[in-house]
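Thread: quick sanity check before group meeting

JM: Hey all, I'm pulling together slides for Thursday and realized we never actually wrote out the predicted structure for the chain we discussed last week. Dropping the sequence here so it's in one place. If anyone has concerns about the input, flag it before I start.
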Amino acid sequence: MKITDIAFFAYAVSDMKKSRAFYEGALGLKPNSEYGGFGNPNWVEYDIGTGTLGVGCAPGMWEPSPKGASAALEVENFDEALATVKAKNIPVVMGPHNFPSCRMVVIADPDGNRLTLHKRKKK
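JM (edit): ok, ran it. Output follows.
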């Protein structure tokens, strides 16, 4: 077996409306697809570069966890991203950090899921 790519990364959330306000409103992501019934999607996908971030609500089957995995989202302008985090009072879990190869800050969504906003430095 040869793994060639990451198909998607997904987070469990407890409230789709609140989560979409965060991912679409605060982070500015655009949904590419929604799944679920009766006009109330319980799964939303956001294309980011060549990858996809999925957000799903499945109480009792899949629960949010602030101690679980973390997606790192590459940003075009780190200073602008950090200013948005501060302006929208998004909780900062760690950082911001300035490493030799990158700058990053770890934030939390409304369920405490961790996301890293990341900017690679030019070599």
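AS: nice. Strands lie at 9-12, 31-35, 43-48, 51-56, 71-74, 92-98, 102-108, 114-120. The helical segments are 16-26, 78-87.
JM: adding both to the slides.
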